[in-house]
Specification:
Blueprint lengths: L1 H7 L4 H17 L13 H5 L4 H21 L6 H29 L5 H27 L2
Amino acid sequence: MLVRFLNAHADRSMEWFSASAMLVWCLVLAQPGDTLTLSPSFSEFVRSGLSETRLAAIFGLVGGARIVALIINGRWPRSPLFRMSGAMAGCVIWGQIAWLQYLGSTASGAISTGVGVYALLALADSVNIYRAAFDVRYHRR
């Protein structure tokens, strides 16, 4: 069953990965404790006023909506619009995380590896925007 699911959604694998990463962020930040104060690379998150509760809610809503859009993809002609919107939100969110990680880690004197990882997620979501936009054009024909 898992193999059949993976084969059916292989062309959307980066969208699934990005949405799943958002849900993991949501779950981690929703745990008790101050996760954002554990590493100097997260110092800009705290300084900019982003609470863990607010971030968990944002990641949960955007990640969950993206998962729902991917599940109904193909069953409803407007789902590529939702996928494109989710990829746009993901691109902005991952880009902001990469930027805040960069600002926070340069204050400590060394750039965090998270900067590159989150920048690549933003880049992947920019490709996902293009792919979903292609599907929008395809379904409107």
